[in-house]
Amino acid sequence: MSLLEVRDLTVRTSGGRTLLDAVSWSVEAGGRLGVIGESGSGKSITALAVLGLLPDGMTATGEVLLDGVDLLALHGRRLDAIRGAQVAMVFQEPLTALDPLMTVGRQIAGPLRLHRGLSRAQAREQAAALCRMVRLDDAERILGSYPWQLSGGQRQRVALAMALACEPRVLLADEPTTALDVTVQAEVLDLLDELVDRTGVTLVFVSHDLPVVARVARDLVVMREGRVVESTTVARALDAPADPYTRQLIEAARAVTRLPFAQEAL
Amino acid sequence: MSADLTAGAALDPRDPSLAPTVDGLAPQPSPDRSGPRPVVARASRRRSPSLIVGALLVGLVAVVGVVATFWTPYALDAAGAGPRLSGPSAQHWAGTDRLGRDLLSQLMGGAQSAMVVAVCSVLVAGALGLTLGVLAAATTRWLDVALVNVVDLLIAFPTLLLAMLIVTVRGASLTSAIAAIGIAGSAVIARVTRINAARVLREDFVTAATASGTGWWGTVARHVLPNIAPTLLVQVMLLAGGAILAEASLSYLGLGAPPPQASWGRLLREAQSTMLVQPWGAILPGVAVVATVLGLNLLGDGLRERNDPNLRGDR
Amino acid sequence: MSTAPETASAAPAAPTADVPLLELAGVGRTYGSGPRATAALAGVDLAVRPGRSVGIVGESGAGKSTLLRLLLALDRPTEGQVLYRGEPLRRDRAAVRRFRRDVQIVFQDPRSSLDPRMTVGAVVAEPLRSLRIPGDRGARVAEVLGWVGLEPDAATRYPAQFSGGQRQRIAIARALAPSPSVLVGDEPVSALDVSVREQVMDLLRRLRAELGLTLVLVSHDIAVVGQLCEETVVLHDGRVAESGPTEQVLTRPQDPYTQRLLAAVPRLP
Asked: Looking at the domain covering A2-102+169-257, what would its CATH class be?
C-alpha cells in the first residue's frame, strides 16, 4: 500500500512548454525512493509539485496522493496543514534555504509552534533536542546563531532538524548534499540514513549523483526530459538495468566516479 | 563567487578575499548543467508594444526636427507673418503666437532644438560618463573611490543650478544647455557603467581573456563595452528624455537658446499669459514635450524588456 | 620513487625533461595585513613536469582558486616563488606573452567562461589575436574545433546556442589554439552532467596523449583528478597535506586528511 503516489503528473509552463509529462511513481510507507536524472529531467520540479511549491505560472495536472488524499487539489490552509507536518522538504542550497534574518532556533521552532501549537519555551526545548538528534552538539550556541554564522554542513543539519521537527510522514530531499564538500556530504548522508531508520519516515531523495542516491535509496526512478524512463530498485539498476538510457547513465557514472588503482577501503 | 557589491565605494569588487568561503560548501556548480538545449532564437517572439509606440513617437519628432533644419512653412523670426494670437487656420495650421509668428514653424523648430539637445547632450554625457565609469571599474581602487565621490557629488548637484552657473559664464545658448545637461547626465551614465563594468570584469570570460594574453584595452573594448552596451543603451534613451525635459525647463526659465532658435520651453513661457486667448500656443508645445519624452521612455522600456529575458537564453 | 607509467611524449620545446614547466617553491599568499591578515596559501611546494599531469584536490576554502591564480600568473605570491621553466616569470610583455602561449586554462562554468556577445570563432581565436600568433586564424580555429569534436561551422554561432558540454569543448578549443604545453583546468567537468562529464574526460585523456599536453587539474573530485593525472597534490586549509604519484596517494595515503577524503567519496557498489 503506497503512502505517496504520483499519478500522471504533468506540469506545463505558462508559455506552453511541458516540463513533466505524465510522471508516475509511488513509494510505500517506510520506503526509500531515489529519483535520479540529469539536468532538464524534471526531477526537482516533481518534488516541488508534490508540495505545491511550483513557481508562478506553472500548472500541474494529475494526482499526488498522500494516503489517498490528492495534494494537488488542496489549497490554502488545508495545504499548509500538510506542509511541514505531513510532508517536509530539504533543499539543495543551504545558503538560501534558511531565512538569513532569523536565528536558527526560531526557525526550527517555527514548524513546531505552527503545527503543534507549542509555547515558545516548549518549542525551544524541542528544538534543542532536535539539534542533538542531527548531531549538532552545542545546541544552545547553534540555536542562538544566525545561518551565516554556521557552515554549510551545519546549515543542512538545521534544515533536516526543521524538516523532521513535526515528525512528518514523508521527507522530500532535493539534492541536499550537492552543494557540500565531499567530507561533509558523507557525514550528512550518514546522518540522513540514521535518521530515516530511526524515525521510520518515508524518504524521497532527488539527485543527479548516482553514488549518493545508491547510498540512501532502495527503490529508484530514472527520469529524463520530463518523463519516467524506468522504475526499479537500486540493486537491479546497478546489476541489470532494463532501459538503455539507464544503462548508459550507470555506465557513465561508474566511469566518472571510478577511483583508479582499485584500492581497498582504508 | 564574490558578493554582488552595488554600493560601497570602499569595497573593491575584484578583491578575492571578499569572496565568501564558508567551509563545508563545495564550489557552486552552475545550476544549469549541460544537456541538449534547443537552439535559442535571438529575438523574442512577442513584439513589445512599448518599443513600437516609442519608436513611432521618437521617429516622428526626429523626422520633423530634421525637416525643420531645411524648411519650415514660415521663417522662424517672421514676426507679423499673420495676425497675432489667431487660432488654427488654413494659412497657419497651428495658429500664431503673440508676435504673429507661425506656431507650426515654431513647433517644428522646437523639434529640431529638442533633437539637437538630446543627441548632443547624450553624446557628451555618454563619452564623459563611459570614461569615468570604466576608469572607476577597471583601474585601481583609489581611482575608483575618488571617482565615485566625484560622481556622487555631481548627481547631488541640481542640473538647473549647474546650467545657471554655466550660462552665467558662457551666456545662454544651445551649447551652454548641452554642456550643462551633458555634464549632469554623465554622472548617471558613469554610475551605471561602473556597476555593470565591474560585474562583467568579475566574469570568468574576462579572466579567460587575460589568460589568453588580452591586455587592458583589449578587455575593455572587446569584452566590457559590448556586454554593458544593452544596459547603457536603455539608460541613454532615458537620459535623452531627461535631456529634453531639462532643455525645456531651461528655455522656460529663459536660460536656453535665445531667439530665433525655437524651443518648446520658451514657447510655453511666452504663451503663458495669453493662454485664454490662444490656448493652442500653450497646449501644442506641452503636448510635444510630453510626447517626445514619453516616446523616449517607452523606447527605453521596450529595449530593456528585450534585453532581459533574451540574454539569459535559459529555460 | 614511482614506477614509470606510460607517459605522454614530452613537450616538444623542453630542452631538459628535468626542468619543471611550472613550479611553486615555498609559495604563500596572504590577503590583508596586520591582525586581519588571512593566509589563503602557505608553504606550498609543487612541480609540474612535462608529461606528468598534476591533479590538485581540495575542498572549499582549501586555497584552490588562489593556487590557480598563482599558477597562471594572474596574481603574485606574498612568499616564495612561482617559476616557469625554471625561471621566475619576467614582467615584460614578450615574456608574459610567451608564458601565456604555453600555459592555458579551462574554467568550471561553461556558461560564464565564454563571452556571450562574441561568436564561437572569435572566442576561440582570441588567444591567437591577443598573443599575436601568426598564421591563418580561421584555419587554426577550424582545426582546434575539430580536435574537440565540433564542426567548423560552429565558429559562426554564439555560445548560447550550445549545450554546457559543447561550451566546455569550445573553452578547451580556445585553450588549445595557441598550442600550449600546459593546460590548467579549474573544475573542468564539475558543472557537467554525468554522461557529458565522461565525454569531456575522454577528450582530455585523448588530448593529453595525442598532443603531449601536460594537464594541471584543480578539483574537489578526487576521482576525476585520479583518473587523469599521474601526480596528485592534496590541498587542505592552504597547505599541501600530501603529494606524490597518484597511485601512491590513492592507495597508501599517509596524511589523515587524505584518508578522510578518500573514505568520504561515495562509491558505487
From this structure: alpha beta
